[in-house]
Amino acid sequence: MIIGVTDCSKYANYANWILAHGPEVKVKKLTWQPSNMEEIKDCDGVVLTGGEDVHPRFYNRPDLYEYCYKDDVSEARDEFELKILEYTETNAVPVLGICRGLQIANVFFGGTLIPDIPRWGKFNHSKLPDDTDRYHSIQVDPASWLHKITGKGADQVNSNHHQSADAIGNGLIVSALSPDGIAEALERKNPAGASFLCLVQWHPERMNDQDSNFVKNIREAFIETSGNK
To answer: By C-alpha distance, which of 91, 94, 93, 51 is closest to 74?
Structure first.
């Protein structure tokens, strides 16, 4: 089984987390520099990783660019990952989106983003001053697919981001929320008969508790579905 993992500065963290599932899993780096888009055809599933801010022009709000971390924007990466999502949707390839992965997927489906959470009157969701992840609680919709995967209605997850989903994309629905109302997970509104799509705002690849249901259950569900593609 081959899982495509999109390139980023912490690519190894994501790749090693996927490989930790077992020896039957291999990973392939999907990168825009230069583009190796053709290699997605070898992939049974795709992980969209964290990283740069999504340029607001992709959700028709270029005026919000001033709120982005301007040294942390890659339009080439945005375009590459939007093409990946076009391919995965067309070919029913399972997708797990993490942090930025949730955000670019929400944009792909026609949604928008909050470009800077604190400026929009929410609590800070970025790293703590000592450069460690924040942790906060989430509430999971008991009727959601995420709840079926994790078997839990609430838990603690890590947090390191300053952008988040705003208007939710077409065909998606929020399945988990932080106490201040940030969308912590998105999924398909009508998943029956559709390919696996799990989008989470936290970083399961580096959670302190790797046995958490919000880490291992999500990875197992993604890998199992990819293996059955």
So the answer is: 51
- Catalytic amino acids? 99, 203, 205
**Maximum pairwise Cα distance, the chain:** 47
Phi first, then psi: give them for residue 35, nearest 5 degrees. Answer: -65, 135
Query: What is the tens place of the pLDDT at every residue in 27-77?
Result: 999 999 999 999 999 999 999 999 999 999 999 999 999 999 977 899 999
Question: Phi/psi at 80 (nearest 5 deg)?
Answer: -65, -45
- Which residue from 215, 129, 142, 124 is spatially nearest to 178, judged by alpha carbons? 124
Task: Give the whole-angstrom CA distance, residue 111 versus residue 169.
Answer: 4
- Rounded to a whole number of angstroms, the distance between the first and last alpha carbons of the chain is 10
Q: Which amino acid is at 70?
A: K
Which residues, in sequence order, are bridge partners of residue 137?
156
- Residue 225's identity, in one-letter code, is T
The residue with tokens 């399961």 is 204
Helices (H), the chain: 11-19, 75-90, 100-108, 145-150, 218-227
CA distance 216 to 48: 17
Q: Cα–Cα distances in Å, from 30 out to 191, 193, 223?
A: 26, 27, 17
Structure tokens at 205: 């690849």
Please answer whether residues 5 and 11 qualify as being in contact, where contact means their C-beta atoms are separated by less than 8 angstroms.
Answer: yes
pTM: 0.96
β-strand pairing of 134-140 with 154-159: antiparallel
